[in-house]
Design goal:
The chain has 387 residues and is of the alpha/beta class. The chain has 16 helices and twelve strands. Helix 13 crosses helix 15 and helix 14 packs across helix 16 (378-384). The longest helix is centred in the first third of the chain and has 31 residues, at 108-138. The two termini are 54 Å apart. 33% of the residues are buried.
Length: 387
């Protein structure tokens, strides 16, 4: 059952539009507003699935209404209607965020098709928002230690900029979470976040993975293929384990950063790209430079800002919060009741040598959720933490 708002200062036109929509679908709930201000008030007071909005109206015109509701984060699609329309008005309405632009008197078939499509698009937008919230929750950084607080403060300062960031720290500390936070809190958060694990891709394929290739450039290149740089265009590219990148690939990444251009493998054609680069490594890149395995010029391009993620041993006070977070997360995922954990067990976990950091702690908590008592005890930690 869709709820539609008609914002139109001429009552006869509102009446006609309402009748057209009711004839199309008897389940539509249709409200009316006689001017732009009344339309904004209605949108702030209730949720709508679609708005049909005139351009020329008293108090606030249609473009002002559209601009104001978008600024307030209202995602309802707008179909803009006007008898005073021209190409410039149409372009301005679409730039402001209108779903469609239809001149008055509207063509009946075009209007109904646009209404159906706009209602379908609203469903997709809502689903996309829901998925983004779920993804954001999955990449939360849990804890209230000073060590983590310093990282979160740095993220808040750096995320809104376009600065490249090098994220360092041991395996399992959450470098990927930092990258996601930088993207989600940045100006490019509506665009793609593309991740490449440089250590997981064979050296002979990494250049194709990053830059793409043209058909016939090597044996298995049966068709043209975009690389990750193109996929991340206007968004964020996260180069995880950048220290494992071959020197040949490093040279091409350096060129991409210097010139904002890439070439697909097997091609000499430049492709312009606009990508924010985040990189991560568990290696000491300065030592890698000294040993001839990493380019110093690339390091300085990547390390405009360096964020060091602390090891778990540097934030032991976060273990109680992390445990409860993982217990709840695993409970929801597996559909099993959450368990309590007693203070002696927490103390034992804080004394444990976490060589695998946060990732190892989560694995231990999952093991305890499956095999431990309720509440989880110190004895359970001794039984299952080191398995």
């Amino acid at each position: 059952m869709a709820k539609i708002l008609i914002i139109e200062d001429e009552e006869p036109i509102r009446r006609v539009l309402k009748r057209i929509l009711e004839d199309e679908n008897k389940t539509f709930i249709i409200d009316e507003a006689e001017d732009g201000k009344a339309g904004i008030d209605a949108l702030l007071a209730s949720d709508y699935d679609l708005v049909l909005c005139d351009i020329k109206m008293p108090k606030k015109d249609g473009l002002e209404v559209l601009q104001e509701v978008k600024e307030k984060g209202i995602l309802t699609p707008f179909i803009v209607l006007t008898g005073h329309g021209n190409i410039q008005t149409a372009v301005q309405a679409m730039k402001t965020g209108a779903y469609d632009f239809i001149p008055k008197p509207p063509d009946l078939n075009r209007l109904l098709i646009s209404v159906r499509n706009a209602l379908e698009s609203k469903s997709l937008v809502v689903e996309n928002v829901r998925l983004k919230k779920r993804i954001a929750k999955a990449y939360q950084m849990i804890g209230d230690s000073k060590a983590l607080g310093d990282v979160l403060d740095m993220i808040d300062k750096v995320a809104p900029t376009q600065a490249r960031v090098l994220i360092t720290g041991p395996n399992g500390t959450g470098k990927e979470l930092v990258a996601h936070q930088l993207h989600e809190k940045g100006q490019r958060n509506r665009q793609n976040f593309i991740e490449v694990n440089c250590a997981a891709i064979p050296a002979e394929l990494i250049e194709s993975e990053l830059f793409g290739h043209v058909k016939g450039s090597f044996t298995s290149a049966v068709k043209d293929r975009k690389g990750k740089f193109e996929a991340a265009n206007n968004g964020t590219l996260f180069l995880d384990e950048i220290g494992d990148l071959s020197l040949s690939a490093q040279a091409k990444v350096l060129r991409a950063l210097q010139e904002n251009k890439i070439q697909r493998v097997g091609s000499d054609k430049d492709i312009s790209v606009d990508v924010r680069i985040l990189a991560a490594t568990n290696k000491d890149l300065k030592q890698e430079i000294a040993d001839g395995r990493f380019r110093e010029d690339l390091y300085h391009r990547l390390a405009v800002i360096v964020i060091k993620v602390p090891a778990l041993k540097e934030r032991l006070e976060d273990i109680p919060l992390l445990c409860r977070h993982f217990i709840q997360q695993i409970s929801e995922k597996e559909g099993v009741p959450a368990k309590e954990i007693d203070q002696a067990a927490i103390k034992k976990l804080q004394d444990y040598p976490w060589t695998g950091n946060i990732r190892e702690l989560r694995n231990v908590v999952e093991r305890l959720m499956i095999l431990g008592d309720n509440p989880i005890t110190k004895k359970n930690i001794e039984q299952f933490a080191s398995k």
